[in-house]
Amino acid sequence: MAATFWSDKRVLVTGGHGFVGRQLVAQLQAHKPKSLKTPRSSELDFRQPAACAEAVAESDLVIHLAANVGGIGYNQKFPGTLFYDNLLMGVHLMEESRKAGVAKFVGVGTICAYPKFAPIPFKEEDLWNGYPEETNAPYGLAKKMMLVQGQAYRQQYAFNSIYLLPVNMYGPGDNFNPDSSHVIPALIKKIVTARNQNEKEVVVWGTGQATREFLYVADAARGILLAAEKYNGGEPVNLGSSFEISIKKLAETIKKVTGYEGTLVWDTSKPDGQPRRKLNVTRAQKEFGFESEVSFEEGLKQTIEWYEKNN
Asked: Which of 43, 222, 252, 300 is the most exposed place for a label (fewest CB within 10 A)?
């Protein structure tokens, strides 16, 4: 099925050289699409309509992964930039896709779009029942506008735009820059550095009580491609793993796997971010048969091994 679906498709992937993009492009190439474009942000600035028009020309299917994104510290430092960049990229890319006659637009949103206190597990129906967690609201809301735009374009222009909400992703090739990384790569870098330099303690942000669900990057890429192939609905769809872990347990697990023998110290003056994050993933299962395959233990091990090798 996949081979025949993709064989006549001219595909554009934005963010194709990023963390998720590299995985997705590798999987997509195995399906042998008719053509595949993966322009870099250094070549085309997707905040500009003309760059978007150039990118989408002669494309049947657009997968929009490009984003300006980071962890809690990065969100606190650059809320305006994150809102502006992500909003404009989504708005212009979808509009130029519509004008160019693109048959399908796959918008990849973010779990940060959910209300701060949404009932657990997060259901797609709860997406509008409150304001997002403050530290990542500008980013989350900018990405959420792709859903609004897609549904409006579906209504007015019969434009086939779908919207996916992946949970926190991790895996080999992640961003380990301490200024902008998410929690797993940030902790791996901190703890491995402390182990290598024989430091007695590692300071970790927050109380450790917050919980997160994590999705291995190869699973996430597979889920996005399955949705691109099989899902044509206007309702948003969660992509997750159904696995939840506290930040405290996560840090302790990384400490154990890396063989670090020092102490973890919790800096409670720093924010925890959203108290809990866990998705209801029944819609993805029902609509396009997606379930995660890589266990958290295995995924974490592979991520740490990749970092040790490429550090």
From this structure: 43
Judge contact between 205 and 250, C-beta under 8 A.
no
Q: Tokens 């967690």 belong to which residue?
A: 133
Domain count, the chain: 1
Which residues are 237's β-sheet partners? 164
The C-alpha angle with vertex 287 and arms to 283 and 290, in degrees rounded to 5, equals 80
Question: Is-catalytic flag, 157?
Answer: no
Element (H, E) at 79: helix 79-99
pLDDT in tens, 68-126: 988 888 889 999 999 999 999 999 999 999 999 999 999 999 999 999 989 999 999 99
Domain with residue 117: its CATH number is: 3.40.50.720
Global pTM value: 0.92
- Report how far residue 161's alpha carbon sits from residue 235's, in angstroms, rounded to the nearest whole number: 10
The per-residue pLDDT for 29 is: 98
Is 132 within the bounds of a domain? yes
Rounded to whole angstroms, how far apart are CA atoms 107 and 46?
A: 14
> In angstroms, what CA-CA distances link 36 with 61, 151, 176, 298?
10, 26, 28, 31
Domain contains 262 = no
The active-site residue, picked from 74, 114, 131, 139, is 139
